[in-house]
Amino acid sequence: MRNTRGRAYFDKKIAEGKTRNEAMRCLKRRIANHIWRMMIADERRLAVIDDGTEIAA
Fold first, then answer.
1. Which residues of 5-31 are buried (b: 16+ CB within 10 A; e: fewer)?
2. Is the pTM of this model over 0.85?
3. Would you say the C-alpha torsion 49, 54, 55, 57 has a positive or negative sign?
4. Are 18 and 30 in contact (CB under 8 A)?
5. Which residues contact 13 (CB under 8 A, 6 or more apart)?
6. Distance between CA 30 and CA 12 in Å, rounded?
7. What is the pLDDT along the chain (57 residues), one digit of tens a residue?
């Protein structure tokens, strides 16, 4: 898919001199980190809703 943020990131890594596999590894890590942050934010949001109080992180 062209003209996506993921493709732009991949192309940037290729331009930095990384191999296709290295660039793909960087992209996968970036996606995994993003998903992890979303999961943590969702967990915190649910904890606040359930208890009515904020949890200490």
1. eeeeebeebeeeeeeeeebeebbeeee
2. no
3. positive
4. no
5. 22, 23, 26, 27
6. 13
7. 789 999 999 999 999 999 999 999 999 999 999 999 999 999 988 887 766 666 565
